[in-house]
């Protein structure tokens, strides 16, 4: 039993390291999105993907270990959460697992907030891009077009980037 709990602690500590690494890549994303370094964004995405694959592999190991712990405690696999394990084990495992649990919760919260911030940057960028395309389309349009309400756009409101005179 001690060996299983020690293995779990080791896996969870590795998981913390990988999530900290992922958080750094997400924070780097923000810098790259703002500075529009496309090649660096692609490179950072590759690093995030590699980190995510490592997390998934570690998750598989953790699930196998939790399965063995669930058999030991005679608790259904799906019900054996980290909180439940904390209630079943004694010190020093309880203290270690509680510390790990707190770190993981804080990390996940930070990752979620960073992801949401990056998402807003991407949404704003996409909106500006669409507006620029709309402007270019309207400015170069030779004939009137219809707006969402079915009316013809006022041609006086929109200029033309190209001279129509020869």
Structure notes:
This protein is mainly alpha-helical and 166 residues long. The chain has one domain (2-121): Methane Monooxygenase Hydroxylase, Chain G, domain 1. It contains four helices and no strands. It has helices spanning 2-35, 38-73, 82-88, 93-140. Helix 1 (2-35) packs antiparallel against helix 2 (38-73) and helix 3 (82-88) packs antiparallel against helix 4 (93-140). The mean pLDDT is 87.
Summarize the entry for a quick read.
About 75% of the residues lie in helices and about 0% in strands. The chain is an all-alpha fold and about 170 residues long. Helix 1 (about 1-35) runs parallel beside helix 4.
Please write out the topology.
Blueprint: H1 2-35, H2 38-73, H3 82-88, H4 93-140
Helix pairs in contact: 1-2, 1-4, 3-4
Structure keywords:
166 residues; mainly alpha; Methane Monooxygenase Hydroxylase, Chain G, domain 1; elongated
Helix content: over 70%
Q: Which blocks of ≥5 consecutive residues have pLDDT under 50?
A: none
Strand content: under 5%
Classify the oligomer: single chain
């Amino acid at each position: 039993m001690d060996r299983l709990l020690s293995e779990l602690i080791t896996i969870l500590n590795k998981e913390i390291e990988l999530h900290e690494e992922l958080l750094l890549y997400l924070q780097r994303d923000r810098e790259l999105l703002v500075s529009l370094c496309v090649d660096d964004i692609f490179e950072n995405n590759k690093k995030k993907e590699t980190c995510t694959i490592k997390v998934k592999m570690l998750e598989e190991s953790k699930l196998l270990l939790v399965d063995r712990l669930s058999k030991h405690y005679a608790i259904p696999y799906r019900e054996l959460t980290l909180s439940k394990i904390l209630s079943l084990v004694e010190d020093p495992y309880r203290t270690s697992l509680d510390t790990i649990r707190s770190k993981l919760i804080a990390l996940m919260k930070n990752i979620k907030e960073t992801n949401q911030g990056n998402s807003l940057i991407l949404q704003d960028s996409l909106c500006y891009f669409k507006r620029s395309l709309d402007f270019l389309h309207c400015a170069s349009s030779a004939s009137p077009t219809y707006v969402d309400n079915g009316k013809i756009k006022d041609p006086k409101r929109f200029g033309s980037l190209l001279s129509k005179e020869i």
